[in-house]
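call fold target=HTH tetR-type domain-containing protein
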Amino acid sequence: MHISEENGIKQLQKGELQGRKCMPTFTKKAIEIALFKLLNEKPLSKITVKDIVEECGINRNSFYYHFQDIPALIEESIIEETNSILEDISGITTMRESVEKIIRRLYQNKTALYHIWGSSNHEQLEIHLMRICDNFAQKYVNGSEAYKNESEEHKQIMQDLLQCECFGQLVKWFNSGMTIDLMEHVDKVVQMADKGLFRFDK
């Protein structure tokens, strides 16, 4: 599921997922869309199950049929959004395009992500942001001319370094209140990597 899918948000805002049209097969998705819509409006600590079900137009029993509580909903929503991002970049061959795609997706729900980051549920977000960084670093190192002659052991070390550097830029972005230019900072990391920053000296 693509949480930031514009059609889903528009349907929810228009009430098209309410009442009878919020059928069981759509209920889970509608709940996740409602969560992110609310997270883009206010902090997680201010969101209740009542808010979510009213936004979605379902009853509390339907919510608890799909999710044990709000933390469980957040965890599953983050997993699905992460999987969607990874699927989006799976066929991309250039690293610049991959970076742009990832950052564009993060910016689509940046307020919601910021509110999760500042909550007690931030650990799940950290875990899956690391998944995205690891995927990017692996593709970069394995596809880069600068590192093609390195041993597999050295490539793994370079992948770990690039993963942690990219994750560090995300942490800086969140901790700055998302005021820094994330694309500019990550692009500089990639430029340094292109110059062999993480390459082992012979």
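return ok
Residues 12-22 have pLDDT under 50 and may be disordered. The chain has two domains: 6-67, 71-194.
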